[in-house]
Design a protein that fits this description.
By secondary structure, this protein is of the alpha/beta class. The chain is built from 12 helices and 9 strands. Strands 1, 2, 3, 4, 5, 6, 7, 8 and 9 form a 9-stranded mixed β-sheet that branches. Strand 6 and strand 7 form a beta hairpin.
Length: about 280
C-alpha cells in the first residue's frame, strides 16, 4: 500500500538539526500514512554524512547526490515519492503531529485545493508565532508569505512543474506557489500552528534579506519570468504617484493606518477617507 504523504527533507550539513526534524515525525500518530525521503545534497560535514549513512543502514530512504542546491534536492526527493501529497520539510525545522492528518482531510474533501498550509512557531534565535493568514492572490503576487512547509498535491506539481532549479536562492517556493495559484488551484489555510520554524543568525532567509544585490536580482528574475503577470515596479509607482499628488494627505493617512487603525476604519466607513495609499 502506497503512503498518502511523502515528507521530503533536503539536508546539507545539518545532521545536528535533522535529528529534531525526524523526532517530530516520529510523534505522528499514524506513521503508516507517510514515507520519509531524505536527500543528502552533497554534505561535507563529517557528522552529517555519518548520521545519514547510519539512517540509510537502518532502512530510512536516503538519497545521496552531489551538491546541487535546495530546489534540485527537493525535486530529487519528489521524483522518488510515492505519496499522493508532498510535504517539504527543511532539515532544521519540525512539524506538529496533527499537520499530516488535518491536511489529508482537507485535500481528500476538496479536489480543487492544491495546497494546505498553516501557522508556525519560531524557535532558536527568535520566539513567537508566525500567523500566516488566509490566502489572497494579490498579496502573494506582492510578496511570498507561505513557507515551503506546506502540503501540495503531487499531481499539481506534475501539472505546473517542479521547483525552479536555476538558483533563485530562497524564492523557489514563492515561484511554485504563484504557478499553482495561476493554474486556478485553491490554497487552504488552517489557522493553527502546524510546524516549528528554526531561526538562526546564518539562515538562508536572513542572508537573503541582508543582501540588496541578491534580492534585486531574484526579484528581477521573477519579473522577467512572468512579464505579463508580475511587475513590482507598479507596486512602487502607485504610492509614489499618490504621494506626489498630495504629500501631506499621504503622510496623514499613513500615520492613521500605522498607529490609529481603529480611527482609520471609522473614517473609512463614513466615507471620510479613500481606502488604501
Amino acid at each position: 500500500m502506497n503512503p498518502r504523504v511523502s515528507i521530503i527533507i533536503p539536508c546539507y550539513n545539518q545532521g545536528h538539526f535533522l535529528q529534531d526534524a525526524l523526532a517530530s515525525i516520529q510523534a505522528i500518530n499514524d506513521r503508516g500514512l507517510i514515507e520519509v525521503i531524505i536527500v543528502n545534497d552533497g554534505s561535507t560535514d563529517q557528522f552529517t554524512n555519518g548520521y545519514l549513512q547510519q539512517l540509510a543502514g537502518s532502512g530510512v530512504q536516503v538519497i545521496f547526490q552531489e551538491n546541487k542546491g535546495l530546489p534540485v534536492a527537493r525535486n530529487t526527493g519528489i521524483a522518488q515519492a510515492k505519496g499522493d501529497y508532498i510535504l517539504p520539510l527543511d532539515a532544521d525545522n519540525k512539524i506538529r503531529p496533527a499537520y499530516v492528518s488535518k491536511s489529508i482531510a482537507v485535500l481528500d474533501k476538496n479536489p480543487n485545493v492544491g495546497v494546505v498550509y498553516g501557522d508556525a512557531e519560531y524557535f532558536g534565535a527568535k520566539k513567537g508565532v508566525w500567523k500566516v493568514g488566509e490566502f489572497n492572490l494579490q498579496r502573494l503576487m506582492i510578496n511570498n508569505y507561505i513557507d515551503a512547509c506546506a502540503m501540495v498535491r503531487r499531481s499539481v506539481l506534475a501539472e505546473v512543474g517542479m521547483y525552479d532549479e536555476k538558483g533563485i536562492g530562497g524564492l523557489e517556493d514563492w515561484d511554485l506557489w504563484l504557478r499553482v495559484a495561476w493554474k486556478g488551484y485553491g490554497f487552504h489555510y488552517i489557522p493553527e500552528v502546524l510546524f516549528d520554524y528554526r531561526v538562526t543568525d546564518d539562515s538562508m532567509s536572513r542572508k537573503l534579506n541582508k543582501s540588496y544585490e541578491k534580492r534585486n536580482y531574484y526579484l528581477q528574475y521573477l519579473n522577467d519570468k512572468y512579464p505579463d503577470r508580475l511587475g513590482h515596479q507598479w507596486i512602487t509607482n502607485y504610492p509614489v504617484q499618490r504621494f506626489k499628488k498630495s504629500p501631506f494627505s499621504f503622510f496623514v493617512k499613513l500615520i492613521l493606518i500605522s498607529y490609529f487603525p481603529g480611527y482609520y476604519q471609522r473614517l473609512l466607513k463614513k466615507n471620510k477617507i479613500v481606502s488604501g495609499l
